[in-house]
Specification:
Helix content is 30%, strand content 25%. Strands 5-6-7-3-8-9 form a 6-stranded mixed β-sheet, with helices on both faces. β6, α6 and β7 form a beta-alpha-beta unit. It is elongated, with a radius of gyration of 24 Å. The structure holds adenosine-5'-triphosphate. The site of adenosine-5'-triphosphate (ATP) has 10 residues, from α1.
Length: 302
């Protein structure tokens, strides 16, 4: 099946500055694709090119089989977007705003159903200007969905949301996947990408520096884990069994062991501690998080 988004050798220069320096991307139908990168990495530039709002310097771009630079209104009907800047009309109620926008589409979604989808039932008759920041963002998501698009661009959709509103938004986004929609998500929240994305691409300095599933991005699945604990008073790290002493890393009160086979080494440690009747009450096993991997990938790029 043809990918929903296909990008080859995309470049965008602003004068002498190259904001996007030759990237390749592919997004399959029905997938939630997360696009991560530090401030100024080139995310918005790329997304706006894919949305047909910005022209490009070079490269091939196909979105739903069409070059967005030459796309017409029928293509636009198939694409929804939640931009960083709110697009809601402050003088209109939530319902009026959705009614207005639904008029732009050939086959809009049901208005009440869309209001319910983003959890704004109680604010349906409230004017945009009187919504909280998080509620306005939910209205933005509703506006992006009202045309029942096949592909939805969500640019930092949960910025400013409280934790419970974020969970609600995640359910909405997961619901889109169940409806068979394709979602192109830009976010700065690693937990959001981890929770939602089928695949992640990381851009830094205008280049894709890694691509993969949340679990395997940047070699995360093969990275070392750490086992850490505090030894009871009077017991030194030099008393640990030999196979664990070789894994010691760092200094300080807390002992840290770095290992690629954490399960085996936790067992060795437990055998040793139980045998000596030592209680390691703060024992912790930590595997690299998506944030660890992300920071590793992006901090090494200028
Ligand atoms: P953020 O996470 O802060 O939203 P981003 O990854 O979306 O960042 P872009 O907005 O794509 O980054 O910007 C990429 C680079 O291009 C930045 O260095 C920015 O200053 C520059 N840039 C963006 N738009 C323009 C413009 N219209 N003219 C000149 N430079 C621009």
């Amino acid at each position: 099946m043809e990918p929903v988004v296909s990008v080859r050798g995309l470049r965008k220069s602003y004068g002498p500055f190259e904001a996007v320096a030759g990237i390749d991307l592919e997004v399959e139908r029905g997938e939630i694709f997360a696009f991560l990168g530090p401030n100024g990495a080139g995310k918005t530039t790329t997304v706006e090119i894919l949305e047909g709002f910005r022209d490009r310097t070079a490269g091939e771009v196909s979105v739903l089989g069409v070059d967005p630079a030459h796309a017409g209104s029928s293509w636009r009907n198939r694409v929804g977007a939640v931009l960083q800047e709110s697009s809601a009309e402050p003088g209109f109620t939530v319902r009026e705003c959705l009614q207005l926008y639904s008029g732009y589409y050939l086959e809009p979604r049901d208005i009440d159903e869309t209001i319910a989808l983003v959890g704004l039932e109680e604010k349906a008759e409230t004017k945009g200007a009187q919504l909280s920041g998080g509620q306005r963002r939910r209205l933005d998501v509703a506006l992006a969905l009202i045309g029942d698009p096949e592909l939805i661009f969500l640019d930092e959709p949960t910025t400013g949301f409280d934790p419970s509103a974020r969970r609600t938004a995640w359910h909405v986004i997961e619901g889109l996947r169940q409806l068979g929609k394709t979602v192109f998500l830009t976010t700065h929240y690693m937990d959001e990408a981890e929770h939602l994305a089928d695949r992640i691409a990381v851009i830094a300095g205008g280049r894709i520096v890694a691509e993969g599933t949340p679990g395997s991005l940047g070699g995360r699945n093969t990275m070392a884990a750490t086992i850490s604990f505090t030894l009871p008073e009077g017991v030194g790290a030099d008393e640990l069994p030999e196979e664990l002493r070789g894994l010691l890393s760092g200094a300080g009160e807390r002992v840290t062991l770095t290992t690629h086979t954490p399960l085996i080494h936790v067992r060795d440690l437990a055998d040793w501690a139980i045998g000596r009747e030592l209680d390691l009450s703060d024992l912790a096993l930590r595997r690299p998080t998506l944030e660890d991997v992300y920071l590793n990938l992006t901090e090494s790029t200028p």
